Amino acid sequence: MSVSWEQQDLFVSSSGANRTPRNGRALVEPGCPVRISRFAAVDGIRELLIRKGEDGKIGITVRHIEEGKILICAVLRRSPAYLAGLRYGDEVLSLEDEALVGQTVDRIRELVRKNTRNSIKLRTKDKPGERYVTVVRDEEKGYGFRFVDGEITFVRSNTSAQRQGLERKLQIIEVNEEVVVGTKDEDIEAIICGSDGGTVTLCVVPVKVYRQLFSRISSITDDSLTLVEL
């Protein structure tokens, strides 16, 4: 059975989906293993009603950081949350209409436990400065960029990378929907070179934003006190 994406109410299948325009609407067809474009946000804000998967969860893990914010530190690929557009580093602003800034982990767990519906209502904010760039490989110049520790250090002129706005001091967060934070350069390169059709899509953020974001998400050692699965 198909369910539609309408305005701000988003229901997604838990088994993978194919967004196919039909009568002006995008439908979610369960069971189709294809690439999913990220659902559009309004000024970086997403207000979502996400149907839970068979395990009763939507497929994200959130972390409470020192500033009192709640950040997404893991998203299960092809999960309801992933198909809704949630990604690593996004901030969760509210859960079930209750603001989360300053809330304790115990309170978040309580909200999750009290939710007996088959869906979860979230309000989230995208990572600041994030961009999605699609680069086409040139037979002579390759993809036209280099990176060190995931940071773009060089972009060749007159290439798809340059025309699409890729530039130095951007950090690669995703390659073809796969999170590569903390991944070795040779493994990132292998993902890029293995792209079908010589086309690769990168999610990048300014290096300054990345360093702040990654340090906040990864610096806490006691996961039991800071992590919640939704």
From TrEMBL:
<feature type="domain" description="PDZ">
    <location>
        <begin position="47"/>
        <end position="114"/>
    </location>
</feature>
<dbReference type="InterPro" id="IPR051230">
    <property type="entry name" value="APP-Binding"/>
</dbReference>
<dbReference type="GO" id="GO:0005737">
    <property type="term" value="C:cytoplasm"/>
</dbReference>
<dbReference type="Pfam" id="PF00595">
    <property type="entry name" value="PDZ"/>
</dbReference>
<protein>
    <submittedName>
        <fullName>PDZ domain-containing protein</fullName>
    </submittedName>
</protein>
<dbReference type="GO" id="GO:0005886">
    <property type="term" value="C:plasma membrane"/>
</dbReference>
<keyword id="KW-0677">Repeat</keyword>
<dbReference type="InterPro" id="IPR001478">
    <property type="entry name" value="PDZ"/>
</dbReference>
<dbReference type="InterPro" id="IPR036034">
    <property type="entry name" value="PDZ_sf"/>
</dbReference>
